[in-house]
Specification:
mainly alpha, three-stranded antiparallel sheet, 8 helices, 3 strands, binds manganese (III) ion
């Protein structure tokens, strides 16, 4: 029995209005980024999945290489943007730095929070072309021994250079569409201002869920309302 394809992916709602991350992320950039760019990844994913479903029905897989690439790109773009929106909050409620387990793990690995910010910022600044800086949790994995740590990845596009098994916690979008209208080519200024709207409570919560083994990213990005 071949399942009937339906559109499974929708643009998530934001927890703030487009103008509420001002002045650090401007309203025009945020609106276009969410309603146009993220929507395009959602549409691209639905479209590629629909075509793959047609391949299963017809038995013709001549286009499968292209479709698998499309799905990897758009799926990763959808997940990372959904995380990016959740990782931000209004600047008047942003607490500026994490506490608890997250801060402990940062201190253990990087020395202190400032050193962590330095490595994350330099990673984001030097992502080649379009991509992301991504803080991840790497859990114990009996395949290669015990691992229980955080790491900062430099993702190209939405999916290249990801480490298999990592759970994303904090994502900084450094595609030009994330900052160019306001910051022009000054990616460095965008990154330092972006930290002023990071929702560290959200990042801490993601780490706690990851530590307890929950696939928090996916569960937390399914929107309540379709629109
Ligand atoms: Mn983007």
């Amino acid at each position: 029995m071949i399942e009937i394809y339906s559109k499974n992916h929708y643009l998530p709602k934001l927890k703030y209005n487009y103008n509420q991350l001002e002045p650090f992320v401007d309203a025009t950039t945020l609106e276009i980024h969410h309603s146009k760019h993220h929507q395009a990844y959602v549409d691209g994913l639905n479209n590629a999945e629909k075509k793959l479903s047609e391949c299963r029905k017809s038995g013709d897989f001549s286009n499968v290489k292209h479709l698998k690439r499309e799905i990897s790109f758009h799926y990763s773009g959808h997940i990372l943007h959904s995380l990016y929106w959740k990782n931000m909050c209004k600047p008047d409620v942003a607490k500026g730095k994490p506490d608890g387990r997250l801060l402990e793990m940062i201190n253990n690995k990087y020395g202190d929070f400032n050193e962590f910010i330095k490595e994350f910022s330099n990673t984001a600044l030097t992502v080649e072309g379009s991509g992301w800086a991504l803080l991840v949790y790497l859990k114990s994995n009996t395949l290669i021994g015990n691992i229980d740590t955080i790491d900062i990845l430099a993702i190209e596009k939405h999916q290249d250079l990801f480490e298999i098994g990592a759970t994303p916690l904090l994502a900084c979008d450094v595609w030009e569409h994330a900052y160019y209208l306001k910051y022009k080519n000054n990616r460095s200024q965008y990154i330092s201002n972006w930290f002023k709207v990071v929702d560290w409570d959200d990042v801490e919560e993601r780490l706690e869920k990851a530590l307890s083994g929950e696939s928090f990213i996916i569960n937390n990005t399914i929107p309540e309302t379709k629109y």
